[in-house]
Fold each of these.
Amino acid sequence: MKKISPVSRSGRFAHGPGADVARFTESVSFDRRLWRHDILGSLVHAAMLRKIGVLSPAEAGAIVRGLKTIAREIEAGKFKWKTELEDVHMNLEAELTRRVPAGAKLHTARSRNDQVALDLRLWLRDEIILLLGEIADLQRALVTLGEKNADVLIPGYTHLQRAQPVYLAHHLLAYVEMLERDCERLWDCYSRVNVCPLGSGAIAGSTLPLDRALVAKLLGFVNANGQAQLTQNSMDAVSDRDFAVEFCAAGALLAVHLSRLAEDLILWTSAEFDFIKIADAYTTGSSLMPQKKNPDIAELARGKSGRVIGNLVALLTLLKGLPMTYNRDLQEDKERLFDTADTVRATVRLTAAMLRNTKINRASCAAAAGDPALLATDLADYLVRKGMPFRQAHHAVGAVVALAEILDKPLNRLTLAELQSVDKKFGRDALGVFDLKRAMAKRNLIGAPGTSEVAKQLARWRKLLQA
Ligand code: ARG
């Protein structure tokens, strides 16, 4: 049986690669998902070769038809991918050339080195847009949950100890802010992904008069003013993967944000907090303990951040010792990049769905937020209003807290006499600070969890996120 040998070996090599070598070196098992972008790049490259006279109109037409037929077959699951042909690029080229003789001209002035850089950039552009859409959807889910429970207060925590009361919406909007910065980072990354490397050849461009700007424009590699965005150094263009690193870095930070949100949700579902209930469809049972309902989706959202961080580290490590320019090591970039994109997109989507199916336990939240100790700082502020230096007020309220502990009473049940035993500045109105509603109405600095400020922020986000 005649072994299939890739075109890249045809002239210089007597045989195709051995089976184990083919298995070790192939990438078609995972880079075939680039096929749409590879074909798109080839269609545009063919159009350009026609324009500069390398392809006749008839040849270009035959190539276009051939590529479109192949695309339909791949779509229908009928295309036979061959491991011996290494990667998606050679599989498609070999099949095209088998059907259309002019296919042999398609690789003119193009190398897999600039081709793979192009495909990755085209693929990543689409991926970023899809991810941005999913993030906006998650932001909407957070805002909706906040709006539906606009009056719910919970303790805010530092060091995981109760600190000061906040609206639940304020807590949720903190994640909306983080996610917004993730979107900004992804857009920023997009502007550097959106640069066309085609025409860089293997390393040193081509002696043929390619029209790089035409290719870039046809593929949408343009800035806001419609100007073609072209890589400016052929060596950089074929060896650089920092656009992929940037995406994986933005993805890692996004994954970390999702992980923190997941951790909050996990805590909140516990009997100890009991702030929320996640719908059955988004929880799982235990194989042993019949009573269990576990927040597995949130746990996986938290756990998957590990692999996304790992992907970033893997990519950086892959690049750090590479001599210029293209080295086959770079083939290892794809699975890390794909995995980050797939993982963060799925995590964002599932987190949004889970939040849409989460109910707030208002009674438990109210009980926790009703802890008067959360307003100890307000009591210190009361003394400050009476002219006491804050350090002194902090000390006095500390003594009040200690006294309440000794008397085994909640802070707001101390008598005026008891308060005054600590400091004479406490007046009749001192206990008024423990009115939670009033306390929340007072916190109206920009960014604070005050009643009107949180309402304003919810309205601002609702408007910004209108689909
Ligand atoms: N499959 C290769 C990759 O993903 C394509 C480029 C191969 N280029 C080469 N000169 N062997 O990096």
Amino acid sequence: MSEQPTKMWSGRFREPLDAAFEQWQRSFPFDVRLLAQEVAASKAHARMIAAAGILTDAELEKMIDGLDQVGDITPEFAPIEPGFVSPRLLGAELGTSPRSIRRWLSRQPEFCEDHVKHTRIVLAKDDPLLLRMKNHFAIQANLNLDGDAAYEEFSAATEADLAASMAHAEDIHHFVELQLTRVIGPLALKLHTGRSRNEQIATDMRLFVREAIDVTVKGLRRWALALVELAEQAGDAAMPSYTHMQRAEPVLVAHWLLAYVAMIERDVTRLTDARRRMNLCPLGSGAVAGATLALDRTIAARELGFDGPTQNSMDATSDRDFLLEFTQALATLGVHISRFAEEITLYSTAEFGFLDLPEAFSTGSSAMPQKKNPDFTELMRGKSARLAGAATTLAVLMKGLPLAYNKDLQEGQEPVFDAADTVRGILGILPAFTRSLKFNFERMKTAAATGYLNAMAAATYLSNKGVPFRKAHEIVGNAVRLGLESGRELDALPLAELQELSPAFGEDFHAAIALEATLDCHDVVGGTARARVHAALTEARQRLSSDVSAQL
Ligand code: ARG
């Protein structure tokens, strides 16, 4: 640390910072979770300045190695998960460099994002890739990945340095610079050539959101598949549909479930669309006006998997549309999750009795012994409020900001992290919860078959007989009144009585208002006729298992 001033900007200042203000303005406590992104972006920047002649090949090599080591640090915030492999320790063990291990792994076709966490490599004991790696590098079969090779024991001096960096780093950019200095010495101070934290945070957040979108889309796909499975199991079971929360017409249970699949598919397109728009690299934008070095910005863009560099440096350093779009898409998703949660909560009540809450996702009451409470659905409904809150925070944060970077933007990080975590938490549970729902099909059917839900089908029957629909509506209304007065459903009214209301009623009337017929008369694309729902279900399954969607 003696190599470097403790601040990134102390040169022009004579007075020290007010101690309370200094602590209060730090973003490190929350932006520390951007360590992986900061390291990746710094490596890309290093390659870009090396190409511009600022670093020799040997210096670049040393810097990349150093940054990898900083990325391998497991500060308290990143839990050590079983399966973590430290490429450095592994390299030492095998007499090869950590980079050759990383490089080998990244070239393997099976290597995917599940193998990377907080910049570290994760390999489960039964991962086939582990076996191949062992063979390739001739690793001893008994190498214990959870122990020795998982994380480094630091010397007391390093521990102290790390603790000091964590206590003082202003933000993740500062932390990485401090730690890189510890690892590779004064060469680290060249890394900041031609860059600004303004473009760094813009890049890190893009990388974070891009990954969060991919995780969310995967989770959504799992939930949609769970709904499709449930719909397939429901077969031709019927339930009432509601408008104004009053029983309307019978629908297939599968049709109701597929309504949520439609919402989810829209959510997926919103997220992937936002991802496409945001996938440009701000590196090379400098503080506001563009880098002061002739950098080839495509190098960094390519290295980080972006489609290209951003268009305008003022926009790139201050644009947070991608955070706004991401949180707005999650807020909309939250609305869908909350509507589902609300319906499940309602349908599980004794009053509806359409389903039994799965015990594994419910809790009891400390006061009332008979209770089984729908905590999961209630909490989902509640958490959707946080998602709406994040989108609102971002919109209000942005609306009055003059170009370009303003420190206010630092406040945009936490709501994004919170929204991403909230959705990740929900989607980690929701597919299993959905699969475990057990419907009371008898009760749903009874509800669908009582309360004159076939009145619309009855009116349609009359209009098919040539009665104008307005008239048919009125005749069936009269029939319903007759039924209400005498405690009978429409199908219990004998033909003779019906014919007093209209001669258009014929022998085939009762068949036309049976449950199956009332379903099947909605024979349009998107309707609840049984054949249409079967087709919709097959199509939904195909869409969800198609390669395109699997790649999302
Ligand atoms: N922590 C800062 C943020 O989140 C990083 C950028 C700081 N830039 C600056 N000029 N102070 O926005």
Amino acid sequence: MNILLLGSGGREHALAWKIAASPLLTRLWCAPGNAGIAQEAECIALDVADHSVVIEFCRRNAVDLVVVGPETPLAAGIVDDLAIAGIKAFGPGRQAAQLEGSKGFTKDLCREFDIPTGSYRRFANAAEALAYVRTQGAPIVVKADGLAAGKGVVVAMTMADAEAAIAMMFDGAFGAAGAEVVIEEFLSGREISFFALCDGDTAIPLASAQDHKRVFDHDRGPNTGGMGAYSPTPFVTPEVHDRIMSDIILPTVAGMKQRGTPFRGVLYAGVMLTTDGPKLFEYNVRFGDPECQVLMLRMMSDIVPAFLASCDGQLKNFDLRWFPDPALTVVMAAKGYPGDYTKATRIDGLVDAAKLEGVEIFHAGTMAKDGAILANGGRVLNVCASGKTVGEAQRRAYQAVDRIKWPEGFCRRDIGWQAVEQERGG
Ligand code: AMP
């Protein structure tokens, strides 16, 4: 098969690595890709926002399957446009991608199909939103309705923070994405990510993971796209797993089908394990980044037939195998991230680091220049490892980190700490 992968981050490097291992593969391209992805795929410069350009490339190169990594092309309807052109693509269509593209859409779906989530209301103007938060009190969560590159959520611990967030969103901080705002009950508990592969009818669980959103150790500092992750998380016990499937994932898939907008692709649930049981606080409609990296390390089965089964509605009889060993990834970012940072700094030691047992290094934002690897983004490398325990995976990943020579980079030193503590009986 000829496959085209869209995206340029660590998630796409992990997907490219996994797709490249498939015996079904003839040729793999990635648009636009990065220096790491170039080891697995032919990187090509395509304007992915222009769907006709992607269609034209697929026709010219007899592409059999397009795999879409990030959410933006999904929300823009690339899967629908490819389908109209007769090209198979993995991921949800424009309507189903609203599960990520509109927070209000997801909350309304939860209400309609009785899916456990925090109470909420939707607002189109600041005055009504302010009046509502005053009746609710803090802590409370203020969310821009649309896609805001992961920045559209403010967990307001005080009334003043909530008021400032509402003012900022209606002042246009997120453009059209903030023209509507969802105000949501603050949920307390442990936060986990849960992934399921869907074909419109059937959902099969992939695995659980926990990511680390704050930039510094001990969960301090601003939120980021994710500084590390591990899978599975011990906090998703078999009982919690079953409840997430029966109360959240399956009613979502059934509800979307009933509405005539079946969901195909990866459904990524952000779930809070509250004292009242698991509650959904958000959906994403693609693999998480960096969670995808650890899922790919743990997936034993060929991923290409799984993508095809999702596209073709054939997951009912499908089985996915996993390696039992946990996997963990440490994100190395450019100093200053998530604020300003310097680009084009040189990274050495990658080959040496990758020689360590169980270690795999994915590139999140790199470019190659004159035989050297240069940083080309905020999150730059995903140093991944598997091991018999999360603790062993963690040790291996940090050994690899210590072999990488990149003075302008940094990472958290505590990825996986909750699971390691639990393993130690703490
Ligand atoms: P998101 O950008 O949607 O991933 O949200 C960012 C973070 O906000 C999440 O990872 C949660 O930690 C937090 N969050 C979102 N919704 C809620 C909620 N209802 N209660 C508490 N925390 C939340």
Amino acid sequence: MIRGIPTLDDLGDVSGKRVFVRADFNVPIEDGRITDDFRIRAALPTLNWLRERGASVACATHLGRPKGTPNPKYSVAPIRERLAELAPDVELLENLRFDPGEEANSAEFAATLTEGFDLYVNDAFGASHRAHASIVGPPKTLPSAMGLLLAKEVEVLLGLRNDPKRPFVAVLGGAKISDKLGVVEALLDVVDALVVGGAMCFTFFAAQGRPIGDSLWEPDQVETCRRLLQQGKTIHLPEDITGVDANGNYATFGTRLPDGAKGFDIGPGSAAAFSDIIMDARTVFWNGPMGMFEDERFASGTRTVAQAMADTKAFTVVGGGDSAAALAQFRLDTDVDHVSTGGGASLELLELGDLPGLAALRGAPNAHD
Ligand code: ADP
Ligand code: MG
């Protein structure tokens, strides 16, 4: 058990048992070919754990958004092929979202999924914030457990929330504050300092009455940012910004942007300051790039923060698809302690301390009854 949730060991003797594994094999596919099989390989420890102990294993995943109808474009066939190479005797069912019952959380669909199985394992962290049939249905009837991947995510993320080594710093960026407001508020309660970069900082600047030129911001979030700034918690905002001036030329600004200017990255002074904060922390959670890193001219703030994440002695956790992509682009992804496999799920777990998929596992029947 980890935080009240059964783990693989709690399943008892699995030899000869038929196990249904909900995995997250939602991989990028182009022209029928998998471009990155990371998510398939990430499930292997759980699949092998079960196979080595004599269980027979079938998995299921969603893939893309076929919206409840079978569509060859979203067939799991390429995944099945790759899985056959990595774990030869593991079966893979067709795309769960070919049936409208998956997203509608239909009990009937869940019953067809679990028919003929003895045990259920959820290893799909990236889908566990959704109350879909394959996530919350099976634990109502089958003895269940979380897989090794899901258990690691839960241990790391709930550890951050409940007992982080201090100082605990959260570094947040990305495009929109509105996407992340819930987690920002929850993090403010537990962190010693919040560091804000990305386009998100301009809404905070606006709340401070600073001119932001034509930078990306969210007028309807200004009041919220003002309230957050007034909470008395330490919020570090950038002290300089790089971007383009009104003529479209590359430029560095202070914290007041001229008319027509656009901020696309934190400046070198801010990057150095943020890096120092990360180096001095004992726990760091990072979500959201510091700028528009896809454009090399505006990647340096994100690169400096990523490098500090790699260099610091602190326990480092990265959540978020684009942040993880940035880290991989800089080849620093193996230098942090944990890169979460779930974007939305990791933020929701940090914010609420629980997910529908975890709650379902907690209520599952005991394997020994
Ligand atoms: P994550 O996926 O890590 O949670 P988000 O999806 O919230 O991150 O945000 C990532 C996007 O934010 C990137 O595409 C990046 O280009 C964009 N972004 C960051 N800073 C800026 C900025 N100053 N102006 C415009 N876009 C930005
Ligand atoms: Mg993103």
